[in-house]
Amino acid sequence: MKMIHLTDTHLTQPGQPLYGSFPAERLRACVASINAEHADADLCVITGDLAHAGEPEAYAQFADIIAELKVPVQLVVGNHDHRGRLGAQFPSLQYDENGFVQSVIHNSSGSFIFMDSVKEGTHAGAYCEKRQQWLAEKLAQASGDVYLFMHHAPFKTGIKPMDKIGLDIQDAAKLQSLLHSHGRVKHLFFGHYHRPMHGSWSGIGFSTLRGLNHQVVLDFQEEDHYLFNHEPPAYAIVFIDDDNVIVHNHDFLDPSTPFNASTEPEWNA
Q1: What are the Calcineurin-like phosphoesterase domain coordinates in residue numbering (predicted)?
Q2: Helices (H) and strands (E) in the chain, counts
Q3: Cβ(175)–Cβ(113) under 8 Å?
Q4: 45: which strand partners?
Q5: What is the radius of gyration, based on Cα positions, of the chain?
Q6: Which residue ranges in the chain fall short of pLDDT 50?
Q7: What pLDDT was estimated at residue 265?
Q8: CA distance linking residue 216 with residue 194, whole number of Å
Q9: Could you tell me the strand order of the sheet in which 197-201 lies?
Q10: Residue 43 Cα distances to 37, 77, 87, 204, angstroms
Q11: For 80, which DSSP code?
């Protein structure tokens, strides 16, 4: 299976910049790149913060741009999103019985579970008892490997200001126990941190990447202030098979030009 992962599009109202750039332009360029290079992908998952302030106009613009994508799209809700306004723009968006934006897709690679980690009234994350009960039921019903998609990471990353608005510590511990009891979770994809990170958490592989509009500075000393910059945006191309999850990050606006090393004098030196 070939999948596209992108995150933190932060769409604003039409014509409105954000931190000195235009999120809509970035998203259009991303869609054009995916269509040109990876239109054969089976799925594109966007892991939250679809809009920066959750306005209806921002979601309408997001929908217009995403409609051009040649790959099927699955949306995950983030802390900058508004569940009701997002659902109004995307009527096919699935909610669980408690009103959380959660759903499951079963495909040839296994079960893809899309989770809602939003904590109302804050940018931090939560995964409460109701959501854990829903997840426990879906894990019990899952066949084959399981892949999780959420906005907040259930662990500390070392970037202290972002970790302060990560997933609730107690919720994360309970989630860890639940996933251990299932034992078939192969990979966790998330957003929120606007940085490329890969590794394993409690034996589960994970990955995230830069957002589309602005990034978080790689700084492990700063305690309180959110330090942003404009490192190049990226999306990920993910290949999944029975044995592997391979994640390639693509800095799609990188201006450097490819060259054939075998034709260069240094190649034969």
Answers
A1: 1-196
A2: 6, 13
A3: no
A4: 5, 74
A5: 19
A6: none
A7: 80
A8: 5
A9: 103-107, 110-114, 146-150, 185-190, 204-208, 197-201
A10: 14, 17, 20, 22
A11: T
Residue 228: Cβ within 10 Å count: 15
Instruction: Say if CB 196 and CB 234 are below 8 A apart.
Output: yes
Tell me if 78 sits within 8 A of 191, measured CB to CB.
yes
Greatest pairwise CA separation for the chain in angstroms = 66
Cα separation, 207 vs 199, whole angstroms: 7
**DSSP secondary structure code for residue 18 in this structure:** B
Token pair recorded at residue 191: 């957003």
Residues in CB range of 56: below 8 A, 6 or more apart:
85, 88, 89
What amino acid is encoded at 145 in this protein? Answer: D
The domain defined by 2-254 folds into Purple Acid Phosphatase; chain A, domain 2 (3.60.21)
User: 2 and 38 in contact (C-beta within 8 Å)?
Assistant: yes
Q: Is 39 exposed, middle or buried (0-12, 13-18, 19+ CB in 10 A)?
A: exposed
Name the residue ranges covered by the structural domains of the chain.
2-254
CA 221 remoteness from chain centre: 25
HSE-up (13 A, CA, CB side) for residue 21: 20
Q: Is the CB of residue 110 less than 8 Å from the CB of residue 81?
A: no
Q: Where are the beta strands (DSSP E) in 126-244?
A: 146-150, 185-190, 197-201, 204-208, 215-216, 228-229, 235-240
pLDDT at 168: 97
Question: Residue 261 corresponds to which tokens in the numbers above?
Answer: 């090393």
Q: Please, is 118 exposed, middle or buried when counting C-beta atoms within 10 Å of its C-beta (0-12, 13-18, 19+)? A: buried
- Residue 263 confidence (pLDDT): 82
pLDDT of residue 269: 60
